[in-house]
Amino acid sequence: MACNHSARDCPDSVTAHRLMQQYIDCDAATCPAKGPAFRFLVAQGEVCPDDRSQEYAR
Ligand SMILES: [Zn+2]
């Protein structure tokens, strides 16, 4: 189910974590706001890919 959120800048991990919480009910694979934040945190090693990959792959 896609959402209508706008893409958000994700300049740092603090912002990314905030976006993850703000859009916690969104699908990282489809949400334009949560997706980049999630990928940023994975790239930074700040989230566990195993823990989130099921949500991401959904
Ligand atoms: Zn969303």
List low-pLDDT spans.
Answer: none
Q: How many DSSP H or I helices?
A: 3
What compounds are bound to the protein? Answer: zinc ion
- Tally of separate domains: 1
What do you see in this structure?
It is built from three helices and no strands. Helix 1 (13-22) packs across helix 2. It has one domain. The longest helix has 11 residues, at 34-44. It has 58 residues and is an all-alpha fold. Zinc ion binds at residues 3, 5, 23, 26, 31, 33-34.
Features:
58 residues, mainly alpha, 3 helices, binds zinc ion
Write the layout of secondary structure elements.
Blueprint: H1 13-22, H2 34-44, H3 49-57
Helix pairs in contact: 1-2
This protein binds zinc ion.
Brief summary of the model shown:
With 58 residues, the protein is mostly helical. It has helices at residues 13-22, 34-44, 49-57. Helices cover 52% and strands 0% of the residues.
